[in-house]
Amino acid sequence: MKLDNLFNTNLTKIKPNAIRAFDESASQVEGIIKLTLGQPDFNTPEHVKDAGIKAIQDNQTGYLSTPGDNRLRQAAANFVKEKYDLDYQWEDEVIVTVGATESLSTALQSICNPGDKIIVPSPYFTLYSSIIYLAGGEPIEVDTSANDFVMSPEMLKDTLEEHGDAVKAIILNYPTNPTGVNWTEEDAKAFADVLRDRPIFVISDEVYSELVYEEEHVSIAKYIREQAIVINGVSKSHAMTGWRVGLLFAPANIMSQLVKVHQNLVTTNSTISQLAARAALENGMNDAQPMREKYMMRRDYIYDFMTRLGFKIVKPSGTFYMFARIPEDLEQNSMDFCLDLAHSAAVAFVPGSAFGIGGESHVRLSYAASIDDIKEAMRRLEVFVKEKRENKKIKDY
């Protein structure tokens, strides 16, 4: 009996995760330096690890309530209030999810009906389109590459005019993976003015909010709270990727629906992870600061180095990613470029094509890696580029 044609038809629209696939392929190259995954090279802070250990020793290994640990939700509400001037009542406007990915899944499954359209500025984090498809929606990509990777209010207006009432939501991600680009308070206000009074949800992925450099993080929820679903977590801010703790914020009338999906997806998050995250937010309000300072140093080193080699880069103002346009005198197909770089120079970047229509001819590299690895990767990249150019001269001659 064959079951091949009995799967959810939405799965046919989903491709394997391009970032993970390329990372696994590049891992086979001996001596490879991988600047591929968004995995902080910092350890989880000691006081957070101690809280996790104590939770185990105290046998706190049973279920917590579906929305999450009360004190963690209180700490989360206090954190976004103090940091970003966002007001949420912990009792009915905050839930704890299994990472930011589950937050996104919960939000989209809560709002999507078959055929609903979700606007996604591109380039974008690869899972956005996949999760939209799984929820029964349809992603509408908007290429922002000509606008330094920030979607303008004019782009939004044009997209809304084109797709009309079919648009159910927009996903915003500032600062942005993969580009590291952030927006200003003026940008956020202008966007809010376009969206206000329209029957559209705004899903704001702010998981990199603590990794903003020269400016302050600005959440659109500050201006259109009643429409906003805010996603955050401790993975990037406290180097806790493996603990899988996400945070979801929304007005009570929206959250009452989101929690129905959350409880049926996961019941609740890990108790031990939640108690560790509680310590992170209660006692480590500024744990990201030393990491942020080192990320800035790495950013500046890579930006100066790659710009000198001819890569065009919008300098990141947040996250730990660099999104670089391949020099025009080199191979412009991002997959071919990255494969050649990996096998010829043992350096792994992610092809820009993995991030949607705005990503081709670019590469993404993560500087959540040691400075020694970064310097060696840049040295190898320079040799690779020089050899490519020399070979091209010989061929053209």
Automatic annotation (TrEMBL):
<dbReference type="InterPro" id="IPR015424">
    <property type="entry name" value="PyrdxlP-dep_Trfase"/>
</dbReference>
<keyword id="KW-0808">Transferase</keyword>
<dbReference type="Pfam" id="PF00155">
    <property type="entry name" value="Aminotran_1_2"/>
</dbReference>
<dbReference type="InterPro" id="IPR004838">
    <property type="entry name" value="NHTrfase_class1_PyrdxlP-BS"/>
</dbReference>
<dbReference type="InterPro" id="IPR004839">
    <property type="entry name" value="Aminotransferase_I/II_large"/>
</dbReference>
<feature type="domain" description="Aminotransferase class I/classII large">
    <location>
        <begin position="32"/>
        <end position="381"/>
    </location>
</feature>
<dbReference type="GO" id="GO:0006520">
    <property type="term" value="P:amino acid metabolic process"/>
</dbReference>
<keyword id="KW-0663">Pyridoxal phosphate</keyword>
<comment type="similarity">
    <text>Belongs to the class-I pyridoxal-phosphate-dependent aminotransferase family.</text>
</comment>
<dbReference type="InterPro" id="IPR050596">
    <property type="entry name" value="AspAT/PAT-like"/>
</dbReference>
<protein>
    <recommendedName>
        <fullName>Aminotransferase</fullName>
        <ecNumber>2.6.1.-</ecNumber>
    </recommendedName>
</protein>
<keyword id="KW-0032">Aminotransferase</keyword>
<dbReference type="InterPro" id="IPR015421">
    <property type="entry name" value="PyrdxlP-dep_Trfase_major"/>
</dbReference>
<dbReference type="GO" id="GO:0030170">
    <property type="term" value="F:pyridoxal phosphate binding"/>
</dbReference>
<dbReference type="GO" id="GO:0008483">
    <property type="term" value="F:transaminase activity"/>
</dbReference>
<dbReference type="InterPro" id="IPR015422">
    <property type="entry name" value="PyrdxlP-dep_Trfase_small"/>
</dbReference>
